[in-house]
Structures are given as structure tokens and as C-alpha cells.
Design brief:
Number of helices of chain B: 1
Largest interface: A-B, 36 and 27 residues
Order of helices and strands of chain B: EEHEEE
Number of strands of chain A: 10
Radius of gyration of chain B: 12 Å
Structural class of chain B: mainly beta
Strand order of the largest sheet of chain B: 2-1-5-3-4
Number of helices of chain A: 9
Largest sheet of chain B: 5 strands, mixed
Helix content of chain B: 10-25%
Shape of chain A: globular
Shape of chain B: globular
Largest sheet of chain A: 5 strands, parallel
Order of helices and strands of chain A: EEEHEHEHEHEHEHEHEHH
Strand content of chain B: 35-45%
Distance between the termini of chain A: 52 Å
Oligomer: heterodimer
Chain lengths: 277, 67
């Protein structure tokens, strides 16, 4: 976690202020992001809807995939016609890659298509659960870093592998909250918290968020950011859900910075117990 | 004619054609794609330089929505 020290930060000068204490922005591989929400661009009804949801989300970074162009329809809509790569940080992914060699081939093409080196590595295993193959993910991360890529890595919530990924030079650790596209929320907050505590690069929960409260839970654990796709694209109203997620991430971050009250076993009256009539 | 494989499909093109000719013939915007030839990236700066050869395996890709 890049800013654990914030917990001990002094409150704002004006104790009645409703403003949040000064927060340091999220910095990934030298890029400063004011939004801690990163969104995917898959599964939308159209690129037009995708663009509106993106605007509503306030996100500055989006994940994108790389696929063969449809030669029978050269004029089919292109993502870059709706979402400007100059305005947003495109984060090419390796979805569909099952080996390090597949991943490096895909990302070299992405680098040529867009000219950047910041990437999201995901090396999956079984299509049923889409859990990352961690041994292959670690090997692919080493290959990519050697090839000059800056690697944000999708990983299991295993603190041991998370540490190894950081040691080989990944610039962000992105453990899953639950299986991709499941919308089950943060299934193992204990492990996510362990990963946050041990990491000195940003920790971004990637996958598993289903609704706004899940994003807040992730941020309250102290995550540096949240990455989601289906939670927005799969909502009945994706643009409204994108706005909800924006607020959920801000709420969770502020809640984390504010420091929650201790949990108690018994009630503790909020009104004074003296002066009763 | 030269026989190539483009995105897994057979494609015939005039001898002496370069990558730029192929991209143009397919009706694609060269600024929005990336090209791989026999597993090697073809940088955009070489589209006008690199001549295609028989049995070249070409991949032409673009960004799409993804998570």
C-alpha cells in the first residue's frame, strides 16, 4: 500500500469541516490518477453506452482488449472512435492468454497499436472459474518486465504470490475479490488486507465487485483502487451504476481515511443519559 | 498473385505489394490497427517499406472493449 501513513495523519485544521483530509492521489508507474476507479470496456450494449458510462464513472484509466479486426466489415465501429486514447489511459489486457508467450505476443501488438508500455497482465486457467494461473502469471510478469513493460498484474488473493509479483517488479498488485464477472463481492477480506499491508506498490481489487457497496468494502479495507467491468456493464442502467461506483469508491476511501469507530458488543446510547425529565 | 494468410483467412494480393497496400486493400485505417507478420511486429513506420512474401502469416488487430 503506497500510503499507509495516511492513517496517522492529523485531521484538517477546521474540525467542523466536512471536507475529507488531504489524500495523496493514486500513482501507478509514475502516472497520477485522481480517480481510484478503473473500469473495463467489455460487455456494453454499444461503445456509445460505454463512453457515457465512462464519463459518469469519472475513471481516467480503462482496460481494453486486443482482437483480430473483422476483415469482412472493415468499417465496423472502433473503440478508439468513441473513447479517445489521448483523453484516457488505455490499459491493454491479456484476456484470453493462457501462457506467458501468448501474453507477450498480445502486449507487443498492443504496444504497437497504442504506443504505451503500461499493461494489465492476466493469465487465466480454467474457463469455468477464470482463476489466474499464478505460476504462469509470475513467469509472464518476469518476461514482460524484461521486455520493458510496466505490469499491473491480476492475481489470486494469495499474499505469498502477491509478494513474489511485487519482488519481480510489478507496478500494481490486483487481487481478485471474487471470480471475474461473478459479482459476488469481496470474498476474502482477510487476504486482501494482508496483501495491502505487505505491499509497497498500489493494491487494486480487480474482479468480483457486483454492486456499489462491494466497491466501498474494498476501499474501506485500504485498497488503493478498484477495477471493475461487469458490475457497471451488466447493470440495468450502466450509466447510473457508473455514477454509483464513482461515489462508492470515494465513500470507501474517505471512510478508510476517516477511520471507523470501534465495534462494540453492546449498545452505547447516542443521547446523554443525564438531565432526563 | 501472392497467397497470404490474413487473420487466419487465405488472401491473394498482387506481387510486390507492401504492408501498406494490404491495409489499404482491406479498407482499414492504419492508425487504428497493429500488424504482425510471421509473429514479428511490423512497426507503422515500415508499412510502406516491407514487401509481402508468399505464405506470409499476417495478423491485423485492434483494440476492442475488454475487462
Amino acid at each position: 500500500m503506497e500510503d499507509g501513513s495516511i492513517m496517522t495523519q492529523a485531521p484538517t485544521q477546521n474540525p467542523t469541516s466536512t471536507q475529507s483530509p488531504a489524500d495523496k492521489p493514486l500513482v501507478v508507474a509514475g502516472r497520477t490518477l485522481t480517480s481510484r476507479l478503473i473500469i473495463g470496456t467489455g460487455k456494453y450494449a454499444s461503445y456509445e453506452q460505454n463512453a457515457r458510462a465512462l464519463e459518469a464513472s469519472g475513471a481516467e484509466m480503462i482496460t481494453v482488449a486486443l482482437r483480430r479486426v473483422n476483415l469482412s466489415d472493415p468499417s465496423e465501429p472502433r473503440l478508439v472512435d468513441f473513447i479517445d486514447p489521448k483523453q484516457y489511459i488505455f490499459l491493454p489486457n491479456t484476456a484470453g492468454c493462457f501462457t506467458g508467450e501468448d501474453a507477450i505476443r498480445t502486449l507487443r501488438l498492443a504496444r504497437e497499436a497504442g504506443g504505451w508500455s503500461l499493461v494489465k497482465l492476466e493469465v487465466l486457467s480454467d474457463p469455468k472459474h477464470l482463476y489466474p494461473d499464478m505460476a504462469e502469471t509470475l513467469r509472464a510478469a518476469e518476461m514482460l518486465i524484461k521486455d520493458g513493460f510496466e505490469v499491473m498484474v491480476y492475481c489470486s488473493d494469495d499474499p505469498v504470490y502477491a509478494r513474489r509479483l511485487e519482488e519481480v517488479g510489478c507496478c500494481a498488485i490486483m487481487p481478485l475479490g471474487a471470480p471475474i464477472g461473478s459479482g459476488l463481492g469481496i470474498q476474502n477480506p482477510v487476504n486482501i488486507r494482508l496483501i495491502i499491508e505487505q505491499s509497497s506498490v498500489p493494491v487494486i481489487v480487480d474482479a468480483g465487485v457486483g454492486t456499489a457497496s462491494d466497491a466501498t468494502v474494498a476501499m474501506e479495507l485500504g485498497c488503493d483502487g478498484v477495477l471493475m467491468n461487469t458490475a457497471i456493464a451488466g447493470a440495468k442502467n450502466p450509466v447510473l451504476m457508473a455514477s454509483a461506483m464513482k461515489h462508492a469508491v470515494i465513500a470507501g476511501r474517505q471512510s478508510y481515511l476517516a477511520g471507523r469507530m470501534p465495534k462494540k458488543l453492546y449498545a452505547d446510547a447516542s443521547s446523554p443519559l443525564f438531565g432526563l425529565i | 498473385m501472392l497467397q497470404l494468410t490474413v487473420n487466419g483467412e487465405a488472401k491473394l494480393i498482387a506481387p510486390g505489394s507492401r504492408v501498406a497496400d494490404l491495409v489499404r486493400e482491406l479498407g482499414l485505417d492504419g492508425r487504428k490497427i497493429a500488424v504482425e507478420r510471421n509473429l514479428e511486429i511490423v512497426p507503422r513506420s515500415r508499412y510502406d517499406l516491407d514487401a509481402l512474401a508468399p505464405d506470409d502469416r499476417i495478423e491485423i488487430v485492434a483494440f476492442v472493449g475488454g475487462g
